[in-house]
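Lay summary. Proteins are chains of building blocks that fold into shapes, and those shapes determine what they do. In this project we predict the shape from the chain. Here is one chain we studied, written as its sequence of building blocks.
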Amino acid sequence: MAFCVPSPCPKSWAAMTTTSDGRFCGSCQHEVVNFSRMSEAEVMAWLTQPTAGTICGYFRAGQFAASPTPAAPRWRRWLVAAIALVGLKPLLAAEEAAAFSPLRAIPRATEQADAHATAPAGQVTIRGRVLDDSTGAGVAGVEIFIGDTKYGAVTDEQGNFSFTMPQKWAPVQKNKVQLRVQGSPFVYKQQLVPVKTFPAPAPLLVRLKSVPGRGEIMGKIMRHDPPMKPPVK
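And here is the predicted shape, written in a compact code that computers can read:
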């Protein structure tokens, strides 16, 4: 289950009356829950309560962004230096290139195919990477939906995604399909990306544009299911 705030509220958080769980909005006569200091897991636990119902929430933009990749441990850095000194630098370079290739995917719930994989006959594989337009960094957790369906993929920690679908499928019209790409509504704008499915599409590079401000967001929360792996027949 995922959640978003599709229609941010322009009211002033500071002007609202403090309550035990957040603040009370005198305009809509509704409590706005302060989720800004909670983790994603804590927010989801709060939203799945039987009494949750319709909820207005207050968030910090980007508060659920993926954690940066930790630095390599000291022993590994020493090992890398030792290998270089004994003349195995070419081997090391090959290893490092494989480990940090921008198209290298980490498996998730949705399919993350190898960058060089070939789709079976009658199927097409679409793969690519989603970047933050303002920083150029890969964006984790972006949802890529195939048209208006419930199918697609979710980007991995480096922003990579991949899925395979039938070549002759209702969402594919005249060898074209439209992808709906949406990152956190607290930070990014949703965008539509048209893709040709024949001949085999080259890897995509999608740049998500920022929403104005990228600061704080408030409004009614909408829950939805993340994309499912597409059918293969």
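What the prediction tells us: The longest helix spans residues 74-85.
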